[in-house]
Amino acid sequence: NEEAANKILKILEEPWERTLFILVSEQPDRLLPTIISRTQEVAIPRIAPDVLERVAAEKGVSDPLQARNMARLSGGNLLELNHLVAGESDALRKENFDLFCGLMRLSYNDKHLELVSWAEEVAHLSREQQRAFLRHAARLLRESYMLHAGLADISYLWGAEADFCGKFAPFIGNENVEFLLDEIERAMRQITQNGNPTIVFTHFALSVSKQIRRK
Questions:
Q1: Looking at residues 113-140, what average pLDDT do you find?
Q2: What's the CA gap between 72 and 156, in Å, rounded?
Q3: Which of 13, 16, 166, 197 has the most crowded CB, counting CB atoms within 10 A?
Q4: How far apart are CA 144 and CA 72, in angstroms?
Q5: 63-94 CB burial, b ≥16 within 10 A, e <16
Q6: How confident is the model at residue 155 (pLDDT cuts 50, 70, 90)?
Q7: Sign of CA dihedral 114, 201, 172, 144
């Protein structure tokens, strides 16, 4: 809020003696100029996929294709790669995949009341689980779009995800993919800013439904 923002600016402008602040942002373009002017930016890029592939192999992933898929799914994040290699993300990925499938099927069939129930279900998850779902949804939308565009050779899907997205791909094209990804980013931003999750995901689900039905 405004009061907290002003206090942060004051502290950054006149810090205590022998004090170092480290501010971390994944969206530096959204920072206020007054913040940027008081800091020194150090850009830390995501870890390259080929590096993560080697790490996966060193951790015991013998199948090169599986190592490549894990490197892509980790999104440049070494911690996420470790979770994937250890199988710690399997249950969460399945839960997120089931939520994504449910949302898209309800959207296609124009089930408004069921979409509201879907939103209430997601609203009961923790905020970190909600953000994880939105990241997962964005990935599956991008992969579906690549399938729609005829780029299956660079798609990183397998198993149930590949089956579903292969059938879902015809409903994701140039006319709606950007809007859908924007809606995901908006929901992510609102959840991060402690927005009411029931309101956020109800609006999100109904907005997605309108775009899917257009196909």
A1: 91
A2: 7
A3: 197
A4: 15
A5: eeebbbbbbbbbeeeeebbbbbbeeebeeeee
A6: low
A7: negative
| Neighbouring C-alpha atoms within 13 Å toward the C-beta of 203 | 14
Helix residue ranges per DSSP H, 14-75: 33-36, 49-58, 64-73
pLDDT more than 70, % of the chain? 94
A 10 A CB-CB count for 214 gives: 11
Residues 6 or more apart in contact with residue 8 via CB below 8 angstroms:
35
pTM of the model: 0.65
In degrees, to the nearest 5, what angle opens at C-alpha 134 toward C-alphas 177 and 195?
A: 110
Residues 6+ apart with CB under 8 A from 138: 181, 184, 185
Query: Tokens 């129930």 — which residue?
Result: 117
Nearest to 111 by CA among 215, 201, 213: 213
The predicted structure's pLDDT at residue 152: 65
- Picking from 191, 77, 79, 78, the residue whose alpha carbon sits closest to that of residue 128 is 191
pLDDT computed for residue 185 by the predictor: 93
Cα pseudo-dihedral 142, 178, 199, 193, rounded to 10:
80
The whole-angstrom distance between residue 211's C-alpha and the CA centroid of its chain comes to: 19
Angle formed by the axes of helices 127-148 and 90-108, to 10°?
A: 60
Distance of alpha carbon 121 from alpha carbon 99, whole angstroms: 9
Cα 109 to Cα 93: distance, rounded to the nearest angstrom: 24
Mean pLDDT of 21-33: 84
